[in-house]
Request: fold
Amino acid sequence: MSDPNEIYAYFTITGNDLDPAEITKALGVTPTDSWKKGDVNSRNGCERKFGRWSLYSRLARSEEFEAHIADVLAQLEQNADGFRRVSEAYEGCMQLVGYFHSYYPGLFFTPQTVQGLAKYKLGVDHDFYYLHSDAREDADV
Reply:
């Protein structure tokens, strides 16, 4: 039996001179994840080569992409003008991540989703990983 798919989305900005504390103060929203250039990455002990500020979807990772994107866009509405300015200054991105173990759900954006992405001038990046293996399905577990 395959593991369930894991799907999520988040708003992110990056930059060499990005100071997450300044972004947080300007937006009045606490990031889900952030770091400054030069901070040590706890996973590998290396210095970060750029700063990053990210706000993740609050939904379970079993939900579909559309729902995750809608949740992130709803969070941006907490300070729409601020997020629009920050997104424009740092080339904001809606990051989509999928670890597909059993099936690929496809990707469809409603007109409302496209309008929401455009409102914040967001690019969209997809990191999709197909992890299904027929060999695992045939193996005795």
Summary: Residues 65-76 form the longest helix (12 residues). The chain has a mean pLDDT of 91. The chain has one domain: 6-138.
